Amino acid sequence: MSQYKSTTADNSLAAGRTRFEPAERAIKYVPFLQSWQADYPALALYQPNYLFVTEPKIFGFNSSSINTVTDLYSNISNWEVKQTKITN
Questions:
Q1: Which residue has better confidence, 20 or 85?
Q2: 36: how many CB neighbours lie within 10 A of its CB?
């Protein structure tokens, strides 16, 4: 939110962004959520959901890290399609 000012919320968000593991991030975001609930600066009315369908043969695709449409290709360098070689 553009005008929301809270040192606790800012520090919590900054700490959460530096963690890769979802469980560690969730712990770091707890103070933000508490601050948000106490201050109640805004009401979120809408959050889009994205559904991506992939082939089971695609390895390395991480759908849990997709928060926006542009995140879809964030780890494309890790994608693999495993194939078997056909000999005649």
A1: 20
A2: 19
Among 48, 87, 45, 39, which residue's Cα sits nearest to residue 70? 48
This prediction has a pTM of 0.47
- Torsion sign over Cα 61, 66, 69, 75: negative
pLDDT in tens, 33-80: 999 889 888 777 776 777 777 777 788 877 776 777 777 788 888 888
Going by C-alpha positions, the residue among 85, 74, 28 that lies closest to residue 50 is 74
| Cα 15 to Cα 64: distance, rounded to the nearest angstrom | 20
DSSP 52: -
Contact between 21 and 30 (Cβ < 8 Å): no
Take residue 21 and report the two structure tokens written for it.
């593991």
Name the token pair of 72. 């879809």
